[in-house]
Amino acid sequence: MSRLTNELAQEIVRRTMQVIHYNVNVMDERGRIIGSGDRSRLYQKHEGAVIAIERKGRFEIDEESARKLQGVLPGTNLAIQFQGEVVGVIGITGDPNEVTKYGELVKMTAEMYLEQADLLEKAQWDKRMKEDFLLSVIHADGENTAMLRLQAERIGLNPDKTRVACIMELSDVQDADSLPVLKRAVEMLEGSPSIDLIAIRNTRQIVMFKVHVQGQEPLAEIDGSIRHIRRLLEKKRISPLRIAVGKAYSGIEGLIESYRSAQDTMRVGQAILPEQTVYYTENMPNEAVAANVKPSWITSELLHLWRRFIQEDKSGELRLTLQAYYEENGEHQRIAEQLAIHRNTLRYRLRRIHEMTGKDPNNFRDLYTLITASWLSALEDTVPE
Question: Which pTM was predicted?
Fold first, then answer.
């Protein structure tokens, strides 16, 4: 099968004719014209090209030869070689005495285009193989690690390097608008040398794995790309980008776990901290535990406790107070400053929470019970992917 496609042949014709101003033909390995400055000659058999292929070299055609051969005009024809094989012929129409001097240059140009096309095809193939591998990791059930390791070796990926998974997600965007944006975002991120796996997971998400460098902030090396992506989203008036950074692991099992940690972090981040746009697994271990709790008698009890509290806290100010109390580790002065209230008001609110729920926020166990109930409530309407 010829590596010369019709599209590539026509591109070679277009580029070379801009320089030499003679008609150029490109023939495939059977001598059929697949690219020409004279479109009326396309797909005709060129006997001069057939002879050049047989000779694996050059064949000149003068006026007399042109009358004897089928489908030819005076000119020069040179076999195009790629990786030691003749894959086609380049022909220049005109007086052989004039056009022969361009022959080697045009042949070299055609062979260079073939090399570039081959490199691009290999790069695209490598990219597809890596995308397929990443999607296999995403959907792995933990029992096919041996197959994934073989797949990694096939694409030249060392799975034993420590990597961290990152998920980037567009929020509140129509599916029809999202795919071009995601593709553009991937192009920007592919420029980062530390990202060796990246794929579009669905109409909203990009998943990538970044080689982890000890002591380095996980998003540091791709921060510039992320800024460009945010500007792209602003131009298209698309809502903010959310990013979840998983835990760093090594090995095939580690790739799976790192992705799952980023996935859980994205889910709890959106549900519990919707005002933020970047979530780190390292900062949210307790919330991630809540995301993996299966329904049971205790989850029912905690949800019932929180629903009762919500019904009585109609303004929501007690919930805000409880959240601030948790975030500020019970430091009354900082909590009062954050909420812009007097410390006496804070004490009153904490007492009201105790009265409504039977749980005292000043007691660590009770505080954790209340916060866990709030997390389970926030996660109740979300669906694990």
Answer: 0.72
